[in-house]
Amino acid sequence: MADYKTDKYEVIKLSKSIIKIQTFEASGLKFNEAKKIATLISLLSEENKFAILRITTDNFFSTDRVRSLIASGQFTKNRYAMAFVVKSAANRISAQFYIQFNKPLEATKIFNDEIKAFEWLIEQEKKQFQKI
Questions:
Q1: What residues contact residue 131 under an 8 Å CB cut-off, 6+ apart?
Q2: What Rg value do the Cα atoms of the chain yield, rounded?
Q3: C-beta of residue 83 within 8 angstroms of C-beta of residue 50
Q4: Which of 50, 84, 86, 122 has the fewest CB atoms found within 10 Å of its own CB?
Q5: Distance between CA 55 and CA 87 in Å, rounded?
């Protein structure tokens, strides 16, 4: 069950710090929707460190403005990892474009499989919260 759901996207807290964002519409998110998601992430993470499992539809795209927001301090301040699950070549290109040009500081990987992406994020979560 989603922590927050609209006809375009849902946001779900999957673990202590992993938050899943899934979009349903091929039209992409508008800037104000991306800002709302940023607020939801902040609430779900309780301002603590978090990771994102990002799943898109086959034809999903994002604008430069949305990609810049996702790469901004509002999104990255506490983000320690991000996994993109791509369903199409267009999704892969968009995710690679984000990685190459926005140069995220946190661990970021692209996957074809949601389970493998989640397993990788669990590994990142363990590293992030291990007792030293």
A1: none
A2: 14
A3: no
A4: 122
A5: 8
Q: Which residues are 10's β-sheet partners?
A: 5, 22
pLDDT of res. 25 = 66
Indicate if the pLDDT at residue 132 is higher than 50: no
Cα(13)–Cα(51) distance, integer angstroms: 10
Cα–Cα distance measured from residue 95 to residue 67, given in angstroms and rounded to the nearest whole number: 10
Residue the block writes with tokens 């499992």: 53
Q: What is the DSSP string of the chain?
A: --SEE-SSEEEEE-SSSEEEEEE--TT---HHHHHHHHHHHHHHHTTS-EEEEEE--TT----HHHHHHHHSHHHHSSEEEEEEE-SSHHHHHHHHHIIIII--SSEEEEES-HHHHHHHHHHHHHHHH---
* Assigned token pair, 54: 């990002």
State what percent of residues in the chain have pLDDT above 70.
83
